[in-house]
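Check this.
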Amino acid sequence: MINKDKFGNIIYEKVYQRLLIKGQILKLNGYVESSNKPNLFFKKMPEGVLFADMRGTAEIPIWEDLSPLFYWNFNEQTPMWKRRRIIAREFEQLSMDGCDCRLSDNDIWDTTEECATSMASGHGYGHIIWIDGGDGYCLHCGKDIQSDEIFCSERCRDIHDETTPEKCVVCDVPGRDVEPIPHHVCYDPEITIQVCRSCHMKIHHTTQYLHLRPFVVRG
């Protein structure tokens, strides 16, 4: 790794040392640093390639958010549910090991048709929530159905809808403790999520949840 971002700007020593730690975590999880693009890590697997980019972007310099920018390139034959499962597991494992990753708005929506990941209505692990399908597990009973379907049966769907209260999808606090309100993550097409008022303020007035700022999908 080097102490420069992708634009040649110097990364100060304290930030660079923290990036080195994240680089070690990535290596322990099977990632390799690119030989010609320092600070860009990738992990090859039979289904495709995962990337963890610590070079920074024009919108978010690496010293403003040390979380690696996570993106992927799956083989065409890899089913959607499997792509979602791989991404969810990777996010969860890296987070547990001390290397939280992030997604950019463009990465989320440019890949909506192949593997939509975002804080939008639906289901998922932690802060990864699927728009157009599941990760192969029934959301209610956990059965491995290896399908884009979210539930394994109508019964599971009905039980889940009847027993699961609305909650803030950011802080995970249920509706009985806070009153969730709809927040637009996209206006065209219209996609909303349920968030509490505190998280809603953070989305619009801080840089904590930049990936949840509303935008328009361009066809």
